[in-house]
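Hey L., structure's done. Input below.
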Amino acid sequence: MKLSAGFLVTTVMLGLALAGARGEPVATDTAGVSRQIGDTIRRVFYDPSRLPAFEAVESSAGAGLDWVKAGLAALGASHTGRYTPDQIDYYEVMDAYASAGVGDRAKAIFPPDGIITYPGIGMIPREIEGRTFAAYVYDGSPADKAGIRTGDEILGVDGQPFHEIASFRPRVDQFVGVQLRRTAQGEPLTIAVPVIAVRPAAMLRGAIRSSARIVERDGRRLGYVRIWSYAVPGVHRLLAELLTTTLRDADGLILDMRGRWGGAPPDAAEMFVGRAPAMELVGRDGRIVTANMRWQKPVVGLIDAGARSGMEILAFALKKAGVPLVGTRTAGALLAGRAYVMGDDSLLIAAVMDVRVDGVRLEGVGVAPDIEVAFDRRYAGGADPQLERALSVLAERLRR
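Output:
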């Protein structure tokens, strides 16, 4: 499957365009998949000068795939890694680009119709210093509604060790008991959470919708929305809808870009700082359709290392337009890449192009906030100091 440079840059969220295995050597044994990974990287990686470091790790490897993580890390590039079906990331990446080339492979991996799902509760774990924490809890998800909070230490599920996929696979449409600790020395709690068959794109869109709200602060109505991902279809349209409904009466907006994936198109900032006139289409039945949404009120942006790729382009554009950014530096992960389905159904992501934004290379650099606010998620108990500071900044701007 041949992709144009324009398509690759437009999909630079992860910068991914999923490529099926058509035309690729098919290998299902470990040794064959290992060769397939090495051959693919040598053929497509954007910077050949870095290949010797990759090949040094590859040449010292045994018969398994244990070398792959270290080999890809040796390339020192974003949008370069391998995802496997025991990771939530695998399903989210697959679903974000299911329509961009996975084709019949999706039907083989997710029979019979290729509908991508995984068993879960809407909580994304991260291991920090040997302990597992709820790093992200999707707004409106089963985990959110059950009371799991960002920063909770996850101890187990139904009395067994925690695994982000395996813990929930046999329990879809049932409740599980998630054991957690809310403070470092606190007593363990058990929270009953329903397990669902998560459709990743729908979960991410739903989380964006559920995040939108108005916060009363100092007599002002402050709007808030979190763009969990711009990569899945329909996000631009969804944001336009929220800005003209749920957030319409807000005096200003907190735009939270601390997402899971990037995917924002190069012109995404136009919705929030563009000066083109807003346009609505009114049908004979009185139904109004927003054709061109432009938010004309003050905006404050929220960023951290979760803002990556296309989301960094959005943050860069907002900062250039004078929108204050609160939080910590973005990921500095801005290359264009492709994802290849390997013979063992894993996804190999390879950076295939470098990217410049207004002549600036953000890879390895990121976008710095105007107001630095650190956030250690461990045992946060749902508190969010970055959001609190952003609300104060927006309220102050409105007072002026």
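The chain has a mean pLDDT of 89. The first strand starts at residue 18 and ends at 19.

-- N.
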